[in-house]
Amino acid sequence: MKYQSTRGGVTGISFRETVLMGLADDGGLLVPESVPDVSAELSSWQGKSYSELALEIMSRFITDIPRDDLADLINRSYSTFTHEQVTPLVKVGDDYILELFHGPTLAFKDVALQFLGNVFEYILQDSGAAVNILGATSGDTGSAAIAGVRGKENINIFIMFPEGKTSPLQELQMTSVLDDNVHNIAVNGSFDDCQSLMKTIFSDLDFKSAYQLAAVNSVNWTRVLAQVVYYFSAWYQLRCPVSFDVAVPTGNFGNIFAGYIARQMGLPIRRLILATNANDILCRFFTSGKYERGDVHFTHSPAMDIQVSSNFERYLYYKLDGSAEKVRHFMQQFADTGRAELPFNTENFDDVFLAGAASNEETLATIRSYYDNEGYLPDPHTAVGLAVMKRFRDSEVPLVCLSTAHPAKFEDAIQEALPGVHATHPTLEALRDLPTRKVVVDPTVENIKSEISTRL
C-alpha cells in the first residue's frame, strides 16, 4: 500500500514514510492510494480479540512492516488498556454506548496514540533516526500523545495547548509528566491558534527537516487508521446486524472520518451522525455544503471547541473524486476568505452523514437525563453525541454513540449538571499534588520555533 497527498504534491510513499511525514510536504493530508474492500472477510473475523481484529484491518494498510512485528506492536499498544475488550459496548436504555476511554489517559485518543507511539519507536530503532514531535491539543490528544512516547529513546515531544481552555485535569495529565523528552507549551489563544501554528511550522520545510519534525495530531494517517478498528469492534459486539448507525461527537473530524473509512471498507454502517457543540462548522457544512469559519466558542466540551477541522480535507478529497486540483482550490478559497463551497448541487449531497449541534444547556441536560433515568454518567463530549443522536433515532437499526472520555476528566461540567455528584478516577486523583512544568507563550510562529530550537 502506497500513500499520496490530497493536494497531489506527494505520491507513492510507504507507510513508514507516511508516519514520519505526518502533514504532507505540500500542505495536504496523506491518504492511501486505495481503500481495500474487506466485506467478503467480515464473517471470518467473528470471535477475534480486539488486537487480532486490529491486525487484520491494519495489515491491509501497512505493508512495509512484517506481520509478526505489526502484531507485536498492536499487542503491546492495547495491553495498556484496563478492559479486556479494549473498547467495550455498553447497552444504555434502548441504545448502545461504545466506551473508548479505558486507556492510560482515559480518552479515545489512547486507542490511536498508544499504537502510534510504538510505531514511531519501531521505525526509529530500525532506521537509527530521531524525531521531534510537534502537536496541538484541545485537551485529550496532548496527554495521550505524551503517554505514548514519554521516556522513549530518540523522541522528543512538544505539545501546544490553549492556556486556561482545557479542563484542569486535562492540563495536569500533560504538565505533570516531567520526563526529559516532554515539553508542554501553553499558548495564549484558542486551539485553532495552536493548530494554525503547527500547520504553519510544518509548512516551513527547511525548519521541518532541520529539526526532524513529526506529527501526532490526527493529520497523521496512523491516528485515523487505528480508530477505524473500533467501528468494526462495535459491529461484532452488536452481533453483526444487517446495518447500524453511529453517533460521533467530533471537532476535528478524525473520529468520524475513521467511521467513513470503515464504511468504505465494507462495514455495514448505514449512517454517521455527526455531533458538534456551538462550534458547528461541520454541522453547517453537512446541512448546506458551505464550509465557513466562525468565532470559537468555549464550551463544556472543550476538546470540540474547534472551528477549522484538520481531517475535513481528507473527506473533501474523496467527495471531490480524488481531484487534488479541486481540493487545492477549495482549501485556498477557504484560507483566503474563511469560506468555501462545494462545486456542485449541495442539496442532500451526502446521505451517509446526518449532523446536528448541541448547546451547553442541552449538554448539561443530557448528562442529567442519562444519570437520573439510566444510571449512566456521560462526559460532556459524549453528552453532545447523545443529545444529537436522539434527533435521528429510529427503530430500524441499532444505534451506537461513541463515548470519547471518562466523565472524571470534566469535573466542573459534571458538578454543574449534577451538584453533589462527584465523578472520580484513581488515575486522575493521583495527579492532584504532583509537580508540574509548562511554559506560557503568545501565539507566534517565532515563539514556538524558539521553544523547539532552545530545548534540543
How much helix, percentage-wise, in residues?
Answer: 40-55%
Low-confidence stretches: none
Structural Rg: 20 Å
> Which oligomeric state applies?
single chain
Mean pLDDT: 95
Shape: globular
Percent of residues in β-strands: 15-25%
Helix/sheet category? alpha/beta
Number of helices: 18
The largest sheet, given as strand count, sense and whether it forms a barrel, is: 6 strands, mixed
Tell how many strands the DSSP assignment holds. Answer: 15
CATH class of the domain at 89-106 and 227-424: Alpha Beta
What distance separates the N and C termini?
Answer: 34 Å
| CATH architecture descriptor text of the domain at 89-106 and 227-424 | 3-Layer(aba) Sandwich
The name CATH uses for the topology of the domain at 89-106 and 227-424 is: Rossmann fold
Neighbour order of strands in the largest sheet:
3-4-14-9-10-13
